[in-house]
Amino acid sequence: MRHPRWITVLLTLAAALTALTVFIPLWWVFVSSLRPGNSFVEHVTPLSWLAFVPSGGDFSNYEVLLSGPFVRGLLNSLLVSGLTIVFGLAVAVPAAYVLATMSFPGQRLVFSFIVVVAMIPFDTIAIPLSALFQTWGLSDTYTGLVLPALANGFAIFVLRQFFMGIPQELVDAAEVDGLGRFGTLWRIFLPLSRPALIGAGMMLFLSQWQAYLWPLLIGTSPERQLAPIALANLSTMFSVDLGQILAGAFVLSVIPMLLLLMFQRQYTASLSTTGMKG
Questions:
Q1: Which positions, given as ranges, span the membrane (predicted)?
Q2: In sequence order, what are the residues at sequence separation of 6 or more whose Cβ sits closer than 8 angstroms to the Cβ of residue 41?
């Protein structure tokens, strides 16, 4: 169904305005990160158009930032996020497959429990859980950083909804060919579920990338600190170099943004299937 031209123009303008609203703060952070020290405040109070013009600055803040402990935190974040994606999908895929294709007593109750638990903010249980992890000897380890993020209810939900949209005829044909449960998952479901796998992987990545409280409680040594903690540590009691902090904030914002741009088609496709079946 084609929309009238004026509706198309209006929707395009609304999309452009939304994109501009999101882009301007990020652009300001980038421009301010090019200015030395705290000199960017000269154009903020009062706010001037010069605050959005990258003039009189350089990349010295990035040079200092990327030659300090922030780099170790950034590499730790990439490692922990990557491990979370791999092992998180290893948990979410079979869980979603069982919930989508098998009938067993209490199936809906289990699925409802997963969805409800996913809605509970993790920070509400982070402190008592960190005490348990210390008892188990998992404090200040990569295992301790990764483990709580593996059972992601939203990732299971997205994969389950996508699996339920796969035609039953393909499943029946696989059973006739004698593939079995695992063979059907490996040869039928996974090849058809690339958008859902990317969408679930992005959810796992973003949940770990933006985490702050849990890495603060568990990654206590400089060798295990993640990037958000390393960035916060740039501010000390006696000195605050906001130029470097803004540079670090820009780096932490750009990495997930680039990933979303690379996989936006698959990510959107995975989200568009979440409400198809219940």
A1: 7-30, 74-97, 109-133, 145-163, 184-206, 242-263
A2: 242
